[in-house]
Description:
There is one protein chain. This protein is mainly α. The protein has one domain. It is built from three helices and no strands.
Amino acid sequence: MEVAGAIIILIGSFIFFLSSLGVIRMPDVYNRIQTGTKATTLGTIFVLVGLALLSPGWTAKLAILLLFILLTNPVSSHVVARAAHFNKEPMSPLTIEDKLEVKEGEA
């Protein structure tokens, strides 16, 4: 079990590394938030599962932590993206549509 746990933790660490590359390469704040959130959530899942395999006595605590991460990470990134949009952070020229943009005559 120790080898499997270590391999799973290594996979999670690799996902964290890919996330950091994605954050550097993305063109605007919205893409960076999306890249960072999805990859860190997945990386955290792998690391916590690997830790549960290495330390079976901690499985319940790690499961609670995992649930907390799954519930709060997407919500927090959504709030940060909304705040960036509210502060009029520029979007990449490659962005096709802004669904939060208020149309003239509405609002």
